[in-house]
Amino acid sequence: MYGTSETVNKYAATFAVDQPSLTIAIESLPNDRYSLIQPFMPRSLPAWLLDQQNTPQMMQLETGELIIPISSRGTVSEDLRGRVSLANPLQFVLQLRRSLAGLPILESNFHPQCSGKEFSLALIRGWSLEELESLEIVCSHVGLAYSALYWRQRLEQSRQQAALIARISRLLNSTLNPDEVVGRIVAELGYGLRCDRSILVDLRDDPVTILAVWDYPERRLLPLEGRQIYRTYWQNIIDMFMQGGASYLQMGVHDPQPDPLQDWMHSIEIMSVLLVPLFIQEEFLGQLC
Question: Is 0.85 surpassed by the pTM of this model?
Fold first, then answer.
């Protein structure tokens, strides 16, 4: 979530990690007024936000704040198995609060002939119908802009994935020795997926053998030399692999009872890792981390 300092103090549990704050100039206000918009994690989702997920509609809270849903038309989602479905059209919810100091007090827009959507808008106090209609138009444009950016990002991701597959295919068909091919493929995957580190692990032996390592340039990572890891630590992961699954592990910083595998990952400062099983024909080899 993003909000002004006042909103953050009201709703935030913690600030969002690794998300920059935005300083926005509001040109329509005197003295070049600026507002600092901060990312934050809410303590809990308010009930009105949960209602908006089910039935998005413009509404006013008892506190007087105006709630405007922003939908993104035509957005679809894709799961890990490639199945595509229509995503929830609600993308954002804009929460506005206006100070009535110095402004004429606007009563309800209610009119006896109002019906349907007009009736719901007419119950909103402190905002004229013209203002509400203008806000709806602006938010509609925001939703369309988000859709355009979303599809542009998906197109760029597809282009990058196709280029990555092409580079790996060229390596597989090259005349390089097998060890060099494996090392370059691990590097291509790590760089292409924007990882801090990419590791190829042979899980057939005990202790486990690390076959190839690629580290992102200019990032200070703890070396893996001399860090033995035993196959028994990976047994739960191996069992999952043998059932046809992959695994994403996110390390708990304050986990009271970490297992040996998590201890090892903590020792090399891993906070999250994607584990992909590798098979040669039907024989299990290991994993790409």
Answer: no
